[in-house]
Structures are given as C-alpha cells and as structure tokens.
Amino acid sequence: MTTPHSSTTPTQTVDSNTYHSSVENIDGNRVAYGDIYQPRRHAPHKNLDFTTSGKSVNNLFTYLVVADGHGPSRTALVTDYFRNLNWASFLEDPDFMEKIYSDVEALGNTRGMGSTLTIAIITKNQAEIYWVGDSQCRVYKNLEEVWASNDHGKNNASEMERISIANQSGEISWRPKTVPAISPDWATKVLSPTEITMELSPYFRFGPHDSINMTNSIGHNGLTGKYWDEHVIEFDDNTNWKIVIATDGFWGMTAYLDLPRIASPAEGPRELLDLSNSRWTQTWKFYNVNEPKDNQTPQELPFPYGQEDDTGIAVWYRGV
Fewest CB within 10 A of the end CB: N or C in the chain? Predict the structure, then answer.
C-alpha cells in the first residue's frame, strides 16, 4: 500500500479529501491501514459519507469504519453522530452495535435520513466484520477475493424475508416497523472499465418520507428494524491479506476486471479513490439494457454534471 507516513497516524487534507494512513512492522509483517473520503466535487454540500481508521486505545485491534449517509445534508444527524464518536475507545465496548442504535434513537427525529455502516475490527488472528446497508466489505487473500459482505438489498434473500413481516408486537426488534412498499427504479451498472448499462434497482418505501434503495439502514426513526450482520475471517499464517470497505460511490464504479488492482498491496485508499474518480468523470460506452449488447453500437456518454457520488474507502493490508 502506498502511503506517505511510516510511524504516526495523522489526518491531513489532500485535494479537499480527508486522508489518513499508517504503516507499521508487527511481528515481521508489514501492516498498513488508512481511509479517505471525498464529497461530490460538483455538490460539496452533499457531505454525507464518513470514514475513519486507527488503533484502539488499548492497542488490541485495528479498526476500519465506513458510513454512507443519505437524506437532507443540512440535518445529517446520523453521520454527524459518527463523526463525533471517539471510535478508538467506543469500539472497545463489546456491545458497541447495540449502543449505536440506542444513541441514534436518542438523537430524536431521523425521518428521511439515515446511513449505512460497516466496521472491521482486526486483530493478529482474525477480522470481525459488522454491517448495516450496502457499504460493502471485501476480503482478499494472496490477491484473490475470498469473501464479500452480502449487501442489505434486493439480491439478499434473507433480507427480503426479514422485511416481509412487520414488528407489530414490538417484541421482534430486528423486523421492520412496517413492511415497505417496493417501487421499481433503475441504476447504472458497470460492465467493464469502459462499458456501462442500467439495471433494476428498486426503492423500499418504509414511510412517506423514508424511501431508500436498500432494505436496512441506521436512522429513519428505526423503521427498517434494529438489525446488523456479522462475519468473522480467520487469518492464516504466512499469507497476504487485504480488507477493503467502501461506499457504493466506489463499488458502483468497478467491475470484475478491476479485481487485480483492488486486491493489490500497492493500491491504498488514495489510489482506489483515484480509480473511482476517474470512472465518475470518464466517457463511457453506454449499452441499452433492452437490446442484446452484440446488436448495439453503444453511445459514448459521460455522467451528467454533478451526478457523481460521494466516495468513502478504508483499507487494511498485512503482508508477510
């Protein structure tokens, strides 16, 4: 991982991006971690994503945190709460996910606003992954992807079952408060580093002011239920490992052919942000989803001005 720091973990500003990184030698291994976030270049007021990384106060683990906020930016209660947390001490509480939900509830009215949240707690022997929403975590072993978190959305069968029954009794807190209506919509889909099309991407309407393009979110007055997923990755000795957590502003601009670059130890958060930025601003070959690709001459189009998404990325790497 390319980083400008070797011993401390400062936060600095690079081209209006919040950038943090660290490299250490631990038990003969090179360990690097860092995070970076960039708001929309043409809409800087849409400052709703959040990333951070670091070491716990007790120095027992490294952590990565990524959140993708949505809703009116002037009242971004949930992501502002994340920004104000002391994560180095907060994550030492084994019940930190329960506390996040109770703290967000105590913020008051979060109608129409919420956030994804993905956390990795990394020790010498394992990584614990916790997630709500669709800021995906992917794990690479010796340059091969070995695991990815299952986004809380339309392609997650267990999630679609979870939201199919409402928590009417108040006793099943992991169920949604209301069964959402599903409204069809479309989103872009990257086919290759130069080709793009559209795919069905429905909105889930949990209330009159709470339509989101996923099945689970922190905020929204708890309408989606108090639920998160967990997974543990056990590390092998003498193996290179890399963990990448990112918002859909990054994953939505990548495809399978990008895997070697994403898995590479040379690609830290800054380099991956550059990849995302280049995709948001390039000219694409656009294929109509309603026709066979081989029968089309693609249109060559850039994204409309101002429509690029915020991008937040956090990375950890251990090399033997």
Answer: C
